[in-house]
Specification:
mainly alpha; Arc Repressor Mutant, subunit A; Diphtheria Toxin Repressor, domain 2; 2 domains; 6 helices; 5% strand
């Protein structure tokens, strides 16, 4: 199952929330993303079916190995691109918003080049 941008965003959100506080439920994702509970419930079902997350009996969401890989890749892109845009003088809020748009479409080659440039700076 190929993930769409929205699926990547859900996985990234689950990762961020788990890093902040451990256990993550659908309600936490809905509140963080500003989405309705039914929308998140549908996405959670798709991500579970796709093998990206598991949901335990208490409703806690956990990234599978595959889900963690995807989430980690997107989160890294977000942080590096935000830092890159900020280094160009873009204000922090705009940099984060733009990074969120770019992170899903940028090629691995272009991202790697930006990442290597940021390491040099």
């Amino acid at each position: 199952m190929r993930l769409l941008e929205s699926g990547e965003m859900y996985l990234e959100t689950i990762l961020i929330l788990s890093l902040k506080g451990g256990h993550v439920r659908s309600l936490d994702v809905a509140e963080y993303m500003g989405f309705s509970k039914p929308s998140v419930s549908r996405a959670v079902g798709l991500l579970k079916t796709g093998g990206y997350i598991t949901v335990d009996d208490d409703g806690y969401l956990t990234l599978t190995e595959t889900g963690h890989e995807v989430a980690g890749k997107i989160y890294e892109r977000h942080t590096v691109l935000t830092e890159f845009l900020s280094s160009l003088g873009v204000n922090a809020e705009t940099a984060a918003e733009d990074a969120c748009k770019i992170e899903h479409d940028i090629s691995d080659e272009s991202f790697l080049a930006i990442k290597q440039l940021m390491k040099k700076l």
